[in-house]
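User: I've been trying to design a sequence by hand for this structure and keep getting stuck. Would you show me what you'd pick, starting by listing the structure so we're on the same page?

Assistant: Good idea, let's start from the same input. This is the structure you sent:
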């Protein structure tokens, strides 16, 4: 009896999941959201809507090992450097889940070894707002290896 109930619950879950994915696929066909991937998350939809209403901005993060392919990271307008770092982590995590590859990154190591720069200035203070560094929508931040002291 318990096995039959579990099987029924699993089938119901699969149906709900299929409906959810079909609904998201319809949403992604909307012109406002057409840039989003097919396996979009609710968080990504919210970010895209916030961008459209001017509540968020895109910061392009350029890595030294992939200069031709900057990462378009979305953050709220009054984001801090720490918010940008968290958004980069989430962007990379979602990209890895979709494409496969490395499953775990030690972000503590990454932030100890690499830094973000805008122009010639390092973004060293996690509490400082991006706008205090002069970063605006569609600006480019570089992700570079720290030099040893």
């Amino acid at each position: 009896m318990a096995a039959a109930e579990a099987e029924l619950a699993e089938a119901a879950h699969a149906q709900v999941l299929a409906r959810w994915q079909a609904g998201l696929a319809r949403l992604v066909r909307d012109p406002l959201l057409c840039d989003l991937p097919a396996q979009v998350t609710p968080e990504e939809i919210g970010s895209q809507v916030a961008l459209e209403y001017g509540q968020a901005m895109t910061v392009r993060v350029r890595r030294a090992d992939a200069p031709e392919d900057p990462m378009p990271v979305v953050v709220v307008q009054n984001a801090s450097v720490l918010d940008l770092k968290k958004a980069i982590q989430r962007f990379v995590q979602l990209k890895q889940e979709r494409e496969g590859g490395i499953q775990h990154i030690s972000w503590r190591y990454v932030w100890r070894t690499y830094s973000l720069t805008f122009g010639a200035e390092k973004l060293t203070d996690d509490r400082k707002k991006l706008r205090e560094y002069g970063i605006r929508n569609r600006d480019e931040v570089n992700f570079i290896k720290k030099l040893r002291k």
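That's my pick for every position. To get oriented when you compare it with your attempt: The longest helix spans residues 2-28. The mean pLDDT is 85.
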